[in-house]
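Posting this for the archive.
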Amino acid sequence: MTDITRAIAAATSVAASLGLPAADAVVLHDSNRLALRLTPCDVLARVAPAGHEAARFEVELAQRLAQAGCPTGLLEPRVDPRVYTRDGFTVTLWTYYEPVTPHTSPADYAKALERLHAGMREVDVPSPRFTDRVAEAEAVVADPDLSPELADADRAFLGGRLGGLRRAIEERGAVEQLLHGEPHPGNVLATMNGPLFIDLETCCRGPVEFDLAHVAEAVCEHYPDVDQGLLDECRQLVLAMVAAWRWRRGDQLPDGRRFGEELLRSLREGPPWPTLDTIRDGPEKSPTVT
């Protein structure tokens, strides 16, 4: 059995054991975790290999954010809100939202992100800092065993940009708070209840401009009190981080190497610094940085 087949079997088994009929599963997304729509119970299952510690953090945080009224996807209310394990996989169960059209407007996107940030300021949970994630990207770039196809000149350039930008942002001393970490369009659902943010495992602490660096310029224009200089540095940092992931051994993003080359070229050519949605063919293809 393939890993995906085994993961689907684990998710349907967990759902069935909880009284949720799951005769079929549709793959919605496959990256570092598998997202499945289970039917006929209509549940969203997120499945990852056992040891995926972020799942527990995400479940706890989702409950706290829901209590704070944040616009986030909710856990499945018919079962206990926890991480389930089955056959070498961790499974979490979430509310499935039927997508609606049209897609979220930039103004509504910005308002939802502002609401999310306001609610996150009320939530006190241990979380990594954005610099921890930068350090992970630096480790990939620094180790040829982790990024064997990255040329030496590109390795030196990318490593230098990651470290330099991290220091420049820290030296600004901006106010930091809990963030989504990757609020790009791929992690925003257009629903009847308005835009909802999902995939909370990337949450970290940092300036709000780090989150804004993942969204389109039109969204940033509707977000209040943005530090443009800090946003420019965060945009560069996000480009560099995503570039690191695209050169990581085993990266599964379709056409990821070409995208990695485009990111390096953008970092060398800028400013103005592009947003992720302008580099790829549409915001719905914006990549995660994990």
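The two ends are 26 Å apart (CA to CA). The longest strand covers residues 22-30.
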